[in-house]
Amino acid sequence: MEKRFTDIVSFVKESKKFSAGNNIVLELWPLRKKEIDELKIFFNIDFSDYVRSIDDASVRHALKHKNLTIEDFLLIDVITVDYDFVCYDVDQKKIIYSKKITDKRRTNNGERNFYYVEYIQTGKKRMAMKTMYKSKIL
Questions:
Q1: Coil, helix or strand for 50?
Q2: Is the dihedral of CA 98, 104, 58, 63 positive or negative?
Q3: H-helix or E-strand spanning residue 42
Q4: Are 9 and 55 in contact (CB under 8 A)?
């Protein structure tokens, strides 16, 4: 029986338990009109029916190699909508978003740059997470 997930946190927690090859996907939300219009300019694709998604493999990769916490995944919406910088790789059908976020809980230099990388799955009409990471701002 297929397990259904309704929120990012439970999906990320469960993804940590899986091994490779599960291909479990959580569809997050449809793209906004602003995104659809902007992406069409660069990729010449109609993104009207596309949804943003994450899968267990990309979650595990980000948690293992990219210094993320489970709570960091809640920032995907902020990073992809209110980004400071975006880079479109038309040849690889990839998009890289960057956003500076201040963590008020940290006393010394709580600013971090978050990067969210996704790629276009045209057959599935998804904007799929490739990886996500953060770095300190020096």
A1: coil
A2: positive
A3: helix 33-43
A4: no
